[in-house]
């Protein structure tokens, strides 16, 4: 029998401090549900084959696009369609939930020291 358990976001967020290192907290339909903490600048990148959803749990997230910058507050989310260049950044710490295909690399088409190829499950 499959064991089904609820997930407490805050208790999972309390298990790590590193920025820009998404952690897998759930899986559904070949999608990963990830938690991450962001602070500072990320890299401009795009995902050729995957859409990406950013949901802000606490803090303020900015996502720079080619034509504008989005400002997300707690309780807000945005879906970045595949092929759209974007650059997340956060002047202060922000906690984010991400929904994206399991194949999604956090830096998309851009290799950098922020690229995480092996994600921890928490």
Describe the structure.
The structure is a single chain. The mean pLDDT is 92. 4% of the residues lie in helices and 43% in strands. Strands 1, 2, 3, 4, 5, 6, 7 and 8 form an eight-stranded mixed β-sheet that branches. The protein has a single domain, classed as Jelly Rolls. With 122 residues, the protein is mainly beta.
Q: Short summary of the structure?
A:
This protein has one helix at residues 9-13; strands spanning 23-28, 31-41, 52-58, 61-64, 69-72, 77-80, 87-101, 120-121. The protein is built from one helix and eight strands. It has 122 residues and is mostly beta strands.
Name given to the CATH architecture = Sandwich
Number of helices, where a helix is a run of at least 4 consecutive DSSP H or I residues: 1
What structural category do the secondary elements indicate? mainly beta
Find the count of extended strands (DSSP E, 2+ residues).
Answer: 8
Number of spatially distinct domains: 1
Low-confidence stretches: none
SSE pattern, N- to C-terminal? HEEEEEEEE
- Shape by Cα distribution: globular
First-to-last CA distance = 21 Å
Q: Please report the first level of CATH classification, the CATH class.
A: Mainly Beta
Radius of gyration: 14 Å
Q: Mean pLDDT, rounded to whole units?
A: 92
The helix content is under 10%
User: At the fourth CATH level, what is the homologous superfamily?
Assistant: Jelly Rolls
CATH fold annotation: Jelly Rolls
Q: Into which percentage range does the β-strand content fall?
A: 35-45%
Biggest β-sheet description: 8 strands, mixed
């Amino acid at each position: 029998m499959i064991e089904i358990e609820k997930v407490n976001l805050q208790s999972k967020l309390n298990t790590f401090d590193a920025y820009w290192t998404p952690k897998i907290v759930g899986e559904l339909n070949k999608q990963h549900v990830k938690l991450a903490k962001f602070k500072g600048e990320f890299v401009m990148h795009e995902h050729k084959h995957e859409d990406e959803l950013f949901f802000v749990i606490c803090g303020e997230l900015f996502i720079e696009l080619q034509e504008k910058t989005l400002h997300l507050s707690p309780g807000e989310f945005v879906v970045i369609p595949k092929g759209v260049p974007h650059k997340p950044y956060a002047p202060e710490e922000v906690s984010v939930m991400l929904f994206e295909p399991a194949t999604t690399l956090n830096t998309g088409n851009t290799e950098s020291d922020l690229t995480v190829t092996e994600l921890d499950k928490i």
